[in-house]
Each structure stands twice: as C-alpha cells, then as structure tokens.
Write a structure and sequence with these properties.
With 484 residues, this protein is α/β, with parallel strands linked by helices. Helix 9 (225-243) packs across helix 10. The chain starts with a strand and ends in a 10-residue tail after the last helix. It has two domains: 3-169, Rossmann fold (3-Layer(aba) Sandwich), CATH 3.40.50; 174-337 and 426-474, Dihydrodipicolinate Reductase, domain 2 (2-Layer Sandwich). The model has no long low-confidence stretch (mean pLDDT 94). Strands 16-15-14-13-7-12-11-8-17 form a nine-stranded mixed beta sheet, sandwiched between helices. The chain contains 15 helices and 17 strands. The longest helix has 20 residues, at 432-451. It has helices spanning 13-28, 48-59, 70-77, 90-101, 119-128, 148-161, 177-187, 218-222, 225-243, 252-264, 271-276, 402-406, 413-423, 432-451, 468-474, and strands at 2-8, 35-42, 80-84, 107-112, 136-140, 167-169, 201-209, 278-284, 286-288, 291-293, 311-316, 328-333, 340-347, 364-370, 374-381, 394-401, 457-460. Bound molecules: 6-O-phosphono-beta-D-glucopyranose (BG6). 6-O-phosphono-beta-D-glucopyranose (BG6) binds next to loops.
C-alpha cells in the first residue's frame, strides 16, 4: 500500500518530539508501509536536505532508546520531504496538490499538527484545491477549538469537506498500551466486571501528574490551561474507558457509542458543585527534579499576571444505575511531585469487620499508565506480622508489570495511532459528538473561573498541588492515593 503523509506544522514541537520519533519507530520495526513519503509542511524556507538535517538534529533530544543510528537515520530520511506553505495562501495548496499528483498514492494523510485556529482555513483550502478525495484522511490534533462553539465550527468545516470516516481526531492517551489494556482488563476478562459498580466501589481516582513545567510551550499553554489541555480530552477519555458499559463489539462506533453515553451522563454542574468540586491551581517556585524551579508566571511566554491554571482537581459523578453516587476524582497538573499517571479503583470496605484491619483498609485496583505500565491489586492478608495477634490483617499486593511481561519496547501511542490512520482504523480516535459532549461539560467550569476573581490557588513546584484538592476528598471521607 502506498501513502503520502503531509505533516502540517512539520517543524513544530509535536512533529519532532512525538511524530517523527513515532514514524521512525514504525520504520525501524518494519510496520511503516514501505512505499510512503512523509512531507513536512511549514512556513520556513527549507530544502528536503535541510529538513532532514533539522529532524536529524532534533533526534538528539529524543529518548535514547528511540534514537536512530546514523545509518538508520539515513535510510529513514529518504522518506522525508519538505514543502514550504503559508496555510492562508490558496496558491500554496495548489503547489501541494502538484506535489501529491506526482505519484497519486493510495492513501493521503493530512495531519494538522498546527494551532487549532488554522484548522478551519486549512480544511477549506484543501477542499478548494481538490485535495478532499476519497483517498484523503484528515488527522486533527487536540485541542480541537477552545470551547464548544469553536469545536463545532472546526468539526462542521471538516465534515463539510470529508466524511466522518475520513476524520481522525487524535487523543494520544487512547493510543497508550496501558489504556488498551484497560479495555482488555474490563472486556477480555470476567473477573472484575461483576464488581464494577456502585455496590462495590467507593470511589475512582484518575491522576495524570507531570513533574515538568510548561517547557518551551509557555505562550500556547498560557492561552490554554490544564482544563483544556488535559481534562477536556485525556482525563475524560480515561473516565470513559473506566466507566463505559461493555460495547457490543470492538468496532469504532460501538466503542464510541458507549463512551458518548458516559459523557452524556456526567452530572451537570450546579453553582454549589462549581464552588466545592473544582480546584484550580498555579505553580509558584519550588524544587522540581531536585533543582530550583521557577514560578509559572516567570516562564518564557507566560504573562506575568497570568491566571491560567496549571493544576485542576475535580469531582465528577455519573448519573446512571451503575455509577450513581460514586465520586470520580480527576487531578492533573504541571510541576507536581512526580511524573505518574494512574487510575485507582477503591473498593468498599467489608460490610462487617471480624479482623483487625488497619484504619481505612480496603481492596483497591491500581491501573498504572506511566511511568510503568501495569496493574496492582491490593488485598488484605494475615501476614502474621503481629506475633501476638493472629487476627491482624496487613496490606499486600499482587503486582503485574506489563513492561516486564511484554517488554518495554511495545508500540508507543503515536506510533500505534499513526499506523491506524494509514490503515484506516478509527477505534482509537474520538468522534465529533464525544468531543462536543466533553466541551459542553467543561464549559461551565471555564465560565465559573472567568467570573471568579479569586484566581488559581498557588502551589509550590514539586508538590501535589493546592491543599484544597485534598480537602475536596476529605469532605467525602476519602484521600488521594499516591501509589504509582
Ligand atoms: C499533551 C499536552 O496532550 O499531553 C501536554 O498538551 C502534556 O501538555 C502531554 O505534557 C502529556 O502526555 P504524556 O504522554 O507525556 O503523558
């Protein structure tokens, strides 16, 4: 099968940090179809050779295991080409059309890894240049818009020029092996499904913590914030994966229908819930990764009086028979104490205690997404640790490390998703109605913050965020689980 992959934003951060390494991995593993060109598009004036040299130099900053040897890079670089384009200029799309006509590949992927305000114009211009053929697949990077209205506008434009089957909305968390394993755990095994409901589960916690700050993306991040950057997409997709009903099959729409139902059943916000169940924070200086870290407002590209949130914690509820009354806590932020992402399912304690168990002890299932990928099941056992009291229970856990079981060189998120686009598999991509529903749910939070002059709560870099986040759980009698 032959393909042309046109990468708009070809010199941008995402291109060299994630997409090029992912394409290279696929090339190295022999899964990238042999007959394919990767055409980087940007406003820079670069020859193919200069573009290859640029990408080669960027690989120096990529994870060592994913770095090519010089010979490997040379072989990969033959696939790379460059086209200078200004996305607002119709003539430039004609030049793209001419480049693509050179060989009429069976699949043409248009990957928009640009600022979202260019999505609409790019879609319209691609169509005007006749580049919306049945062979075209459009990939849209998140965030898709900045609110419901802009999201709808982008989706409407994309759907005017292409069919929904040709539109691949990326949420790279869905491509992570751990998230696919979550589907496998729930729908490929019988063990947990009967327990997966309000009668047995006390609360569910989703944590996506990063120790890094905003790095070189200060200006983008300052206009975006953690709610739009992480909650509206990644965190809510994880919530869907953990809470959805079993789909009727593993086809894209069967999975998306069930995820959509979860998003539709999220309890709407009330003024009281907005006051008590959402915490926003912003990091001040502190210590991160063992070094002094500057405050968010001192980061390059960030406004010195910025009120953009770098941390969000919230409490959601799903109004359904399965989940009524079970709190789902979500927390995400930059410059937190560690880089770890996990979902913790806290089961209810035994209804009647006949043993001496540590206070608050109960079963829990920890689904680790990163840095390691695995599962931990926490049980209580008589470890005889207390020699005087044979009735005393101690916590113990079953530990499944998927990196150890299956090797840590598994297909990475972007590698999986890029191959899926080329192969035309939509399972791990987000449908427009899911996105709209997620925006609809987060919008009242954005509106509440716009009215709330108190601004985000400060937290020191290298901590777990503002204390109000723990207070929110304490009000329900719970606490955050720090396991990773
Ligand atoms: C991106 C966000 O979508 O996800 C970034 O824009 C964030 O701000 C990144 O750092 C986290 O992804 P991962 O895979 O490193 O957890």
């Amino acid at each position: 099968m032959s393909f042309d992959l046109v990468l708009f934003g070809g010199t941008g951060d995402l291109a060299w940090r994630k997409l090029m390494p992912a394409l290279f991995q696929a090339f190295r593993h022999g899964t990238l179809p042999k007959d394919g060109r990767i055409i980087g598009v940007a406003r820079d004036e670069l020859s193919d050779e200069a573009y290859r040299a640029l990408i080669r130099s960027r690989f120096e900053e990529v994870d060592l295991a994913k770095r090519p040897t010089p010979e490997e890079f040379d072989a990969f670089a033959q696939r790379l080409h460059f086209l200078r384009m200004d996305l607002s200029k119709p003539d430039d799309y004609q030049r793209l059309a001419a480049t693509l006509q050179e060989r009429a590949a069976e699949v043409v992927v248009m990957y928009l890894a640009t600022a979202p305000n260019l999505f609409t114009v790019a879609c319209e211009q691609l169509a005007a240049a006749g580049l919306n053929t049945p062979r075209t697949r459009l990939v849209l990077e998140k965030p898709l818009g900045v609110d419901l209205a802009s999201n709808r506008e982008i989706n409407a434009t994309a759907q005017r020029v292409l069919s929904e089957q040709q539109i691949f909305r990326i949420d790279h968390y869905l491509g992570k092996p751990s998230v696919q394993n979550l589907f496998a755990l729930r729908f490929g095994n019988t063990l947990f499904e009967p327990l997966w409901r309000r009668e047995n589960i006390a609360n569910i916690q989703i944590t996506i913590a990063e120790d890094l700050g905003v790095e070189r993306r200060g200006a983008f991040y300052d206009a975006t914030g953690a709610l739009r950057d992480m909650v509206q997409n990644h965190a809510l997709q994880l919530l869907c994966a953990i809470a959805m009903e079993p789909p009727i099959n593993a086809q894209a729409d069967a999975i998306r229908d069930e995820k959509l139902k979860v998003l539709r059943s999220l309890k709407p916000w009330t003024p009281q819930a907005l006051g008590q169940h959402v915490v926003r924070g912003q990091y001040t200086g502190g210590v991160a990764e063992g070094e002094a870290a500057r405050a968010y407002r001192e980061e390059p590209g960030v406004r010195p009086d910025s009120t953009t949130e770098t941390f969000v914690a919230l409490r959601a509820e799903i109004a359904s028979w399965r989940w009524a009354g079970v709190p789902f806590y979500i927390r995400t932020g930059k410059r937190l104490a560690a880089r770890e992402a996990h979902i913790v399912v806290n089961f209810r304690p035994t209804p009647h205690a006949i043993f001496d168990a540590p206070a608050g002890a109960a079963n829990k299932l920890v689904i680790n997404l990163q840095p390691r990928d695995g599962l931990q099941l926490h049980l209580l056992a008589q470890g005889q640790v207390n020699r005087r009291n044979a009735q005393a229970l101690a916590p113990v856990h079953l530990d499944l490390d998927f990196d150890r079981s299956f090797g840590s060189e598994r297909v990475g998120a972007y590698e999986r998703l890029l191959l899926d686009v080329i192969d035309g598999r939509l399972n791990l991509f987000v449908r427009s109605d899911e996105q709209e529903e997620a925006w609809r749910w987060v919008e009242p939070i954005m509106e509440h913050w716009a009215r709330d002059t108190a601004g985000p709560r400060p937290y020191a870099a290298g901590t777990w965020g503002p204390s109000a986040s723990s207070t929110m759980l304490a009000r329900d009698g719970f606490s955050w689980s720090e396991e990773g």
